[in-house]
Amino acid sequence: MKKNTFVFAICISGLFFPFTTFANSPDPKESMDIFIGTLTIQDNKAMLTRCDIAQNEYVLKDADWSKEKVVSGFLSNATKLKQPIYAEVIAAYKSEKDINILLVDSIENLTEAKSCHLADLF
């Protein structure tokens, strides 16, 4: 009987404790995604305007775990590139004081004079 009560208690607690477990942010390196958009520089910060209906904006920062500092490299070469600059950013999302931040691992398919925004088609 005690074994059944123990198993029941574990099952019931499993319904409530996962929420607290997932509330803690996982290792950002494990939660990376691809963010597609155009890159710009605003206030000496690299920005990505995502190619979605809302055109969400993200501040790009070099990820601590990344060997290459691609955001710093982009900032040093961005003035030489023809706008708009299309890119696929592999990064982990982070929010700080209502600011969308991407911790960038790499920037792929960096293409000058290319846009993926619908407004740029017209």
How would you explain this protein's 3D organization?
The chain has 2 helices and 5 strands, in the order αβββαββ. The chain has a 5-stranded mixed beta barrel with strand order 1-2-3-5-4. Helices cover 25% and strands 40% of the residues. The chain has helices at 2-23, 70-77, and strands at residues 32-42, 45-50, 57-62, 85-96, 99-112. It has 122 residues and is an alpha+beta fold.
Q: What is the number of beta strands?
A: 5
Computed CA radius of gyration, to the nearest angstrom: 20 Å
**Strand order in the largest sheet:** 1-2-3-5-4
Terminal CA distance: 72 Å
Q: Largest beta sheet, briefly?
A: 5 strands, mixed, barrel
Principal-axis shape equals: globular
Number of helices: 2
Helix percentage: 10-25%
Give the tags.
alpha+beta, globular, 2 helices, single chain, five-stranded mixed beta barrel, 122 residues
What is the compact description of this entry?
The chain is 25% helix and 40% strand.
Spell out the blueprint of helices and strands:
Elements: H1 2-23, E1 32-42, E2 45-50, E3 57-62, H2 70-77, E4 85-96, E5 99-112
Parallel strand pairs: 3-5
Antiparallel strand pairs: 1-2, 1-4, 2-3, 4-5
